[in-house]
Amino acid sequence: MGMAGCGSEEKNTSNADAEQKSETASETREEGQAPEQTDTEGSEEAELQTTESDHAETGLTFADLAALQFEFCSGAGGWSTDFTIEKDGSFSGVYHDSDMGDTGDGYPNGTMYYCNFSGHFTNLTKVDDDTYEMSLADISYQNTVGDTEILDDMLYVYTDVYGLEGTDTFRIYLPGTPREKLTEDEWFWIAAGNESETELTMTVIVNEPNEYGIYSYERSTASEEAQGIYNSLLSYNDELEQQLQSASTQQETNEITAQMYQNSDDSLNQIWHIVKYNSDETEFSQILEEQKSWITEKEAEAEKIRAANNGSSAEMDVNIKLNDLTEERCRALLEYLKNYIKR
Question: CATH number of 222-340: 1.10.10, 3.40.50, 1.20.1270, 3.10.600?
Answer without folding.
Answer: 1.20.1270
